[in-house]
Amino acid sequence: MAKPEPVDSKTCPFCPGNEGMTPPAEAVYTDRGVLADGSERVRNWRARVFPNLFAAMVPKPTPPTTEWIALPGHGFHEVIVDSPEHGIGPADFSRDQLELILEVYRDRYSHYRRKHGVSYISIFKNWGDAAGASMSHTHSQIIAIPIVPPLIKRETTVLSSASFCIYCNIAERETSSSRLITSNDSWILIAPFYSIAPYETWILPKGHISDLKAMDEHQRRDLGQILGDALRRLKSLLDDPPFNYMIFQQPFGYHLNIRIQPALTKIAGFERSTGVYINPVPPEQAASELRMA
Ligand SMILES: [Zn+2]
Ligand SMILES: [Zn+2]
User: Fold this and answer.
1) Can you name the CATH fold of 151-293?
2) Looking at residue 54, what is its pLDDT?
3) For a surface tag, which of 8, 75, 170, 216 has the fewest beta carbons within 10 Å of its beta carbon?
């Protein structure tokens, strides 16, 4: 199975000691609090957030060509180095570290929510070559964009046409279904009925919260627990597979959810030409195997 190429920690820009190889960090999480890089880089950190050198979105984009109608690539793109340790994976994080990462996600989300011109914030992790990780040192990314993306818009239209919250309904029904993998006080981990990838899982809050900002401390600790649990089950069952996890959230009227999709099959002609995904592993089977992992 494809794993990220090991890069020497001496030359890895995400490793402690090499902070000067990245743009100055806007937020550095340390035991002394959340700091920011000045002329000197902050050392002894637990997580670092800085602008992506190869940004997909930038605050001051060049205007698009006049030949076609296009939006400028206005937005923000940050890298979150979510552990100082080179060579460990997200499934190896301590619960403390996972809780910290969730705090970072929540803080950056709150920061960009307030920015003029930001309509949607995507927070995700690519783990492994096949899932699109270009750096082997574990990291997450955040991209803030000026539009609500089509996928989200379509989902929101369906959600708002119902007289009840569809996600609350899913969370309640799946608590006693064959697709439940595990749960704690605040969250459930399921193989969703609508899995588009083999061994896809979703983490859903049991109560209705729209985004990470609405999460209380108890829910954050519980989320750290269940996210770690989900990642360890995947690693153990599928030999550290490449995967993407993605946080779906919106400030109003939405039900926060986190989707973990292992990249075990190729997205090819059929999927690209139809938007329809062939998943050879039924979610009930995935849930059963992940329960035992
Ligand atoms: Zn590194
Ligand atoms: Zn809900």
Assistant:
1) HIT family, subunit A (3.30.428)
2) 82
3) 8
